[in-house]
């Protein structure tokens, strides 16, 4: 699937990490205003870290957003409008992180507009002259958008970790390439709703990535021909009935039932790999052709 356009795509030439976090903020406005407000605060905090480095100012490594804001204000680097925008994003972000009330779309949109002012100021003052900032646009709900809140949180947190790494001084070229490659990988993986990796299951040196849409899927024994009896026995012990019941490492799973061994763990891991791939293909088809009815036929070649 081609990468869908998003408003802050123009940031990619100077910071893909910033651009991708902004993309997920945009996606979360109408899915979870609280998520957008909370992480917008982290987004602008990273912008201020970049400003501090550009200005070669001294600060504590773990400075809060307010401390960064105050530091830049003390050096007369913020005009009134930008300072007010930063305070607004910080304050409503703090509320979203601690207040249990429902947050409205209108509040997320106000924060989105404040973020735009901050980004525009940052690009115009510290960005390359060749980079132009487009006029402000209100985001619109995306048709077919089905990311749930836990998936959005996982996506944003993963990208924020990359953003933090990108701000650290990296002297080894290979490390920079590694971060760039990881960023590109996240870019691809975040295209389809439900496909964000929510957890990983390992066996020996092999790893399976569990997409969000399969997080709590039922592991029907009949779907696993070589492990059917094994899963039935595990189910009787209230183990491995759904994906979320599986341990992070399958090694030793057989110990929950009698007369099974490590080989059964290995076989189940292999069948899980096939199961996940089949379900991914099925979901891609459903997303591509919603509302249509499909029959799956599995054949065995003798």
Strand content: under 5%
- Which percent range fits the helix content? 40-55%
**What does the main sheet amount to?**
2 strands, antiparallel
Strand count: 2
Structural class estimated from helices and strands: mainly alpha
Low-confidence stretches: 170-190
Shape descriptor reads: elongated
Number of self-contained structural domains: 2
Distance between the termini: 35 Å
Strands side by side in the biggest sheet: 1-2
Our Rg estimate from Cα atoms comes to 23 Å
Number of helices: 9
Helix and strand element order: HHHHHHHEEHH
Overall pLDDT confidence: 84
Structure description:
This protein has helices spanning 16-28, 33-55, 65-74, 80-98, 105-126, 149-167, 173-189, 228-236, 262-288; strands spanning 197-203, 206-211. By secondary structure, the protein is mainly alpha-helical. Helices cover 53% and strands 4% of the residues. Mean pLDDT is 84; it is low at 170-190. Helix 1 (16-28) packs antiparallel against helix 2 and helix 6 (149-167) runs antiparallel to helix 7. The protein folds into 2 domains: 7-189, no CATH class; 197-288, no CATH class. The relative contact order is 0.10. It has a two-stranded antiparallel ribbon. The chain starts with 15 loop residues before the first helix and ends in a 14-residue tail after the last helix.
